[in-house]
Amino acid sequence: MSPFLLYFSSLFVLLFFHSPTCNAEDSLKVECNNTYNGITVANYTNNSTFHTNLKILLPSLSSNVSLIKGFYNTSIGEGSDKVYGLVLCRGDVSPDTCRNCTNFASAELLSRCQSRSSAIWYDLCQVQYSDTNFFNFSTTKWWFWVWNQINMTDSEVERFKNSRALLMHELANKTAYEPLRGMFATGKKSYSSTNNVFGLMQCKPVISGEACHKCLEVAITKIPECCDSRIGGRVVSEVCSLRFENITFFGESLVGGPAHSPTLPPVPSLVGGPPPSPIGGPAHSPTLPPAPSLVGGPPPSPTLPPSSPGESKVNEI
Length: 317
Ligand SMILES: *[C@@H]1O[C@H](CO)[C@@H](O)[C@H](O)[C@H]1NC(C)=O
Ligand SMILES: *[C@@H]1O[C@H](CO)[C@@H](O)[C@H](O)[C@H]1NC(C)=O
Ligand SMILES: *[C@@H]1O[C@H](CO)[C@@H](O)[C@H](O)[C@H]1NC(C)=O
Ligand SMILES: *[C@@H]1O[C@H](CO)[C@@H](O)[C@H](O)[C@H]1NC(C)=O
Ligand SMILES: *[C@@H]1O[C@H](CO)[C@@H](O)[C@H](O)[C@H]1NC(C)=O
Ligand SMILES: *[C@@H]1O[C@H](CO)[C@@H](O)[C@H](O)[C@H]1NC(C)=O
Ligand SMILES: *[C@@H]1O[C@H](CO)[C@@H](O)[C@H](O)[C@H]1NC(C)=O
Ligand SMILES: *[C@@H]1O[C@H](CO)[C@@H](O)[C@H](O)[C@H]1NC(C)=O
Ligand SMILES: *[C@@H]1O[C@H](CO)[C@@H](O)[C@H](O)[C@H]1NC(C)=O
Ligand SMILES: *[C@@H]1O[C@H](CO)[C@@H](O)[C@H](O)[C@H]1NC(C)=O
Ligand SMILES: *[C@@H]1O[C@H](CO)[C@@H](O)[C@H](O)[C@H]1NC(C)=O
Fold this sequence. Notes:
By secondary structure, this protein is of the alpha+beta class. It has 2 domains: 1-11 and 137-317, Killer Toxin P4, Chain A (2-Layer Sandwich); 17-130, Killer Toxin P4, Chain A (2-Layer Sandwich), CATH 3.30.430. The chain has 6 helices and 11 strands. The protein is elongated and about 60 Å long. It binds 2-acetamido-2-deoxy-beta-D-glucopyranose (11 copies). Residues 45-46 line the site of one 2-acetamido-2-deoxy-beta-D-glucopyranose (NAG). Residues 265-317 are annotated as: Disordered.
């Protein structure tokens, strides 16, 4: 079986975003072999000191994250048994939802991964742990994306893309360079007299503004591969992420302002990315991935367009 297919089967693709809570099927991506800066990951042994430390660390993320505005990093242990853990909630979630999502994500990591470096992404939070201090790492090896299956209507697609581009660059500036925002920004821009494109950006708030801006600008360059003419999409890494939709997916009150609770995410999406490239290989795959075909999994809802889950990763140093 090719690594691509292995990847397929290890991923639980989100077909339906229904609930703001954190359910297993909501996970956007699980990476049990999450290498940072080329450092290889090994598995830990059951009941080792590392394992014990991990079992203490992960619950401490959810018990502390809500105290500190949706972000928390900590470490436990000594030497080769030391574990570093980090959680980042989406900037607009309530403390309860953040804690809940973190709790769930941490338990999933513990039960699904056995490596010394793993990460999991949900719509509303992401949790990472490693035996390496990765807290201030600002380059990313992993990009993945999720797109809405629906395309913008032909007559509006050019205006949509233009407005989206303006919005994305504005949000990158706000996210990176307006410190009071905590490296999270949302906004909207009209693309016709009645329609808007909505955007959201976030960086891990322990990196510099410059590093955040650089990451987001790279994320923006992935849009053509990810979801150029789609009505919605996300480009995600450990360091920063972006999302756009043609309907609101965060509280309207958030546009240009601080947080309230999010509205329900709207639509079914696909997860994907370019074909995997080996460590140290080319930063970009030369070709676009073929449209992945449906390999098992739940049948699409009859009211929705057919979907085809797939996923991958790319080096990006
Ligand atoms: C972890 O990922 C690296 C790079 O992607 C790969 O070379 C290595 O074989 C992977 N290890 C496991 C156990 O999957
Ligand atoms: C780590 O464990 C997973 C299963 O939990 C296994 O698939 C993988 O090959 C192991 N990796 C190494 C390097 O032993
Ligand atoms: C780990 O510890 C638990 C309980 O402490 C025990 O049930 C389990 O068998 C142990 N596993 C290994 C691989 O030693
Ligand atoms: C560790 O424990 C898990 C379940 O608790 C089991 O699935 C896995 O095979 C064990 N691994 C080793 C190396 O004992
Ligand atoms: C984090 O949570 C743990 C309990 O899981 C607690 O012992 C610790 O004091 C908390 N740390 C902070 C900084 O609040
Ligand atoms: C969290 O990460 C930052 C950036 O590396 C670091 O300065 C800080 O000490 C870390 N916090 C903890 C509790 O480890
Ligand atoms: C937290 O999760 C539980 C079950 O996973 C759910 O019943 C509860 O409503 C969630 N709470 C919040 C605030 O999301
Ligand atoms: C990142 O953190 C490490 C260890 O805490 C420190 O040595 C290094 O200078 C930091 N790098 C940046 C860019 O802040
Ligand atoms: C949407 O556009 C993409 C890329 O142009 C195309 O591959 C896909 O078939 C289109 N989807 C629909 C539902 O028309
Ligand atoms: C989003 O775009 C689709 C496709 O062009 C369109 O059918 C739908 O009405 C749009 N939604 C909004 C809220 O503008
Ligand atoms: C982003 O900020 C830079 C530097 O302040 C500025 O030159 C640029 O025009 C801004 N871009 C947008 C889209 O606001």
